[in-house]
Amino acid sequence: MDDIKIPSQKQNNQERAFPTEASLTSPQKKFMPEEVIDMSKNNQSPINSPKKHFKITKKQLIIVSIIVILAIAGALYYFLFYKKDQPVNTTVTTTKKEEPPKPPTSPLTGRVVESEAIAKRPVTAIMIENSPDARPQSGLKQADTVVEAVAEGGVTRFMAAYLESTPDYIGPIRSARPYYVDYALAFDASYAHVGGSPEALSDIKTLGVKDLDQFFNPDAYFRINSRYAPHNMYSDFTKLDALNQSKGYTSSKFTPFERKIDVAQTPTANSVSFSLSGATYNPTFTYDAATNSYIRSQAGSNHNDFKSGEPINPKVVVAIVLDKSSDGYNTIYQTSGSGTAYIFQDGIVSQGSWNKPDRKSSVTLNDKNGLPMKLNAGQTWITLVGSPGDINYQP
Fold it and tell me: Domain 116-247 belongs to what architecture?
């Protein structure tokens, strides 16, 4: 039997080995790839061979370099020539600065007051006499607003309105008249008086005035011994506040005058006087630059407060021109409607208009352009006159 030769393991492995470049003939080398993995080393099989590493050719390197250069150039062009011309869309977050709360002010004077409780007090209007036997009066200096008109026989009388001010001595207090009733209604005020004309007393009832008549509320008033009746009736705000509270008169709703910061100007109205009835009652207001106010005088002397001795000096003086007549004894004023008004403040005069649609309405003041007239904060003195000829002022 022929002998069978079994090739050795070494020989078998050599026969199965991949050809190397040196063992190939020239035609074979022609068809070899650029890189051949020699698996004869380390006895590695194709399955266990390491990862194949590729070489980048010079041509490929050039192409990649050109692409990178073009990308960089495009980015530079975008940011230098295109992006800068585009609108910048930015969102700005702003924090609104909170303004401090405004201090409370009196609707009757525009002055700053200590608390909202004071600003919301009810208005109380008080009739104060102006006959020679009633002078000097008490409480007019502290009044927030004063309305002056002729009662009868040429004697003038005042309706003093209070909100923030609460003097402890007010008088002499006298009787009501219809046109004062209308101005008490203009401020939605409770109305302190000692009786009144038949027409005024009827109007108080029919128009729903907040009535504080002394005839029906004697405990809120007192007579002094230093003067004789009827020039000796007085009151104070301890009594009047208690009376208001007992009747439920705890607030007042009306249209306040608009106010501004007072700034003295070159005077065009240093002296202002009104012709009301005669020398005993015709008032004069003299501008005082130091206080930017008007010092009031009558019958040839300053009109001073009784207790303090200080002159009455309102910040604003207003002359309201309206129809005025007489029935032979009583003065008649047409308080509803509109007409011309002269406003004296800061040493100058401004002509405007007043408006009061009906007897219950508030009084508003407008400038010559029809806009709200802004007044200095402080006491406002309103005088009713029958015609512009009753007003005289000098620079």
Answer: 3-Layer(bba) Sandwich (3.50)
